[in-house]
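Can you please make up a whole protein chain along with its backbone structure tokens because I've never seen that pairing?
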Amino acid sequence: MSHSLKSFASDNNAPVHDAIFQAMMDANRGDVIGYGDDLHTLAAEKRFKEIFGKYIRVFFMLTGTGANVAGLSHITRPYHAIVCSDKAHLENDECGAPEKMTGCKLIRLPSEDGKIRPVQIIPHLDSIGFQHHSQPKVVSITQATELGTVYQPDEIREIAGFARKHNLYLHMDGARIANAAASLDLSLAEISGAAGVDLLSFGGTKNGAMAAEALVFFNQDLADEFEYTRKQSMQLMSKMRYISAQFNALFSGNLWIENARNANNMAKILAERIEGISSIKITQKVETNGVFAILPKEAIEKLRRKYFFYTWDVRKNEVRWMTSYNTTEKDIDGFVEAIREALG
């Protein structure tokens, strides 16, 4: 099978941004102390505090799954339960790591748009205090969701208030939080800590970085002794400066938001270009950098001979087309032309 160089499968497939690569190369000079005791890491920690608030605790991690699992395992006990959407990355794309490493039960809430609501959690609160049942302890939401939709700040605040009322923590999987902030035209803090999130898995990898993930604790008490959990989770990188340098580059100027805005804008342009095609049905609001659409199976097969992308739901012939920081309007033009050819 021959594919074009451009992929619409995932923003993970995009190359590392030149400025981020350069920052890593600049950090690659001389000896520095390992495991985070270096000037690059101290600078990155300072940037996170400028963005999210001076009282946060931040820990740099290697992978998004590692950040999610290490963070959740630190704030739970094995008899606890974690409530999430049935579309969540925790549930579908982490190979059972949350269950294995935390020991917790995942409670999946059905969602057509990737978002969950407090009313869905209420029936599961009956388990609290009953020794035969897993005890709900964390609500985990994804921003932006796996379906490309975004939580509005008031939706997050509602969930956070509900969680606090019932002695639950609120975790946010922010693998694409930059895309959500760009879509909402709000700061990163406004859609996380300021909205009541206790723990944020912050992702940089999908926004032009090579491997840059972080855990941000807004509740400092929860961060106590996390350095040991990070080590046991095999997420402590000895040459930490290469992770830290990536964050310094992302937050230097407006690179993080420029990258996210371009990815979002290209998805909107793609959706606009195919909206009038009768044999294509867009299934989700295009709020960030993903377009979900249903089209004939034979057209999917033809299109995949030229472009790499994933089928989201085989039963419905629903596909997912993702754009990234380096997608151009010319890329969109070529892809739309290929879609029309595939549809005959």
